[in-house]
Amino acid sequence: MAQDPNAVSEVPQNIKDLMSKYSFTDIDDNPLKVSSIRYLEEDRKKIYGGNKNFESILTADHVLSVECVPKDEADDIKNEDKEISEKIMIITGDDIEELEIEDMITMEDMDLSQAIEFTFYENGPWFLGGIGKDSLAHYRGSKFPIWKKQLLNPVCEASFKRLLCIGLVTNIFDRYCFPMPEEEKKDYTVVDDHGNNVELPRPVKALRIWNVKKRAYDVVSARLEGDDAPKVGQEGKYWENMLEEFRQTRGIEYIDGLLASFKAK
Fold this sequence. Notes:
single chain, five-stranded antiparallel beta sheet, four-stranded antiparallel beta sheet, 11 strands, elongated
């Protein structure tokens, strides 16, 4: 019989025993030892279940957060700062499944709690991303030139107008690592002169990651980095300089007319 985490705060002993017998390993196949077993928080359950690859989490009998420490450190009482990993386990009937997600940059599997979560909105909702924290650190430094090139060398006039409307992009974007809801993709897609769809960048509003030790979220910087990216506080000046270049190359009336039409909307 399925257990309701809202009604039962403690995981039944038979489920704990089942998890204690399960063989957990880290990414390098080093053995881990279970240190804690609890039901996964409902808000996290909804976020993970909102990903089409993990919809089974929403109908499982048990959705567990199983915290583990390296087996060779488990009995070291002097080490008070053991590395803790979290395994998300689902049990449906007699089936047990450990949920992992692939980092789209390194192509390596990682625990769900190691994946960056993102939102496009001021107050959520949040979504499960396809990238880990280490990969993100590198990725943030490579995306600004991609955005700038797309604006300076647009494939069509429609894409230029839409990019100009979006404005300066200073946060990370990626259609695969940070996919937007299906119904909103049309707002970031234009059709070029040959009838082909052109995808435009949609920057995230915020990023976060689950801190296993604190059992709480840590804020993660979404800010794009790199030598050509504007520094904090210099965004307005940077964007105005770009607009001035466009006025010189495309015409003052044309650019100012486009900007005025954007504001009118």
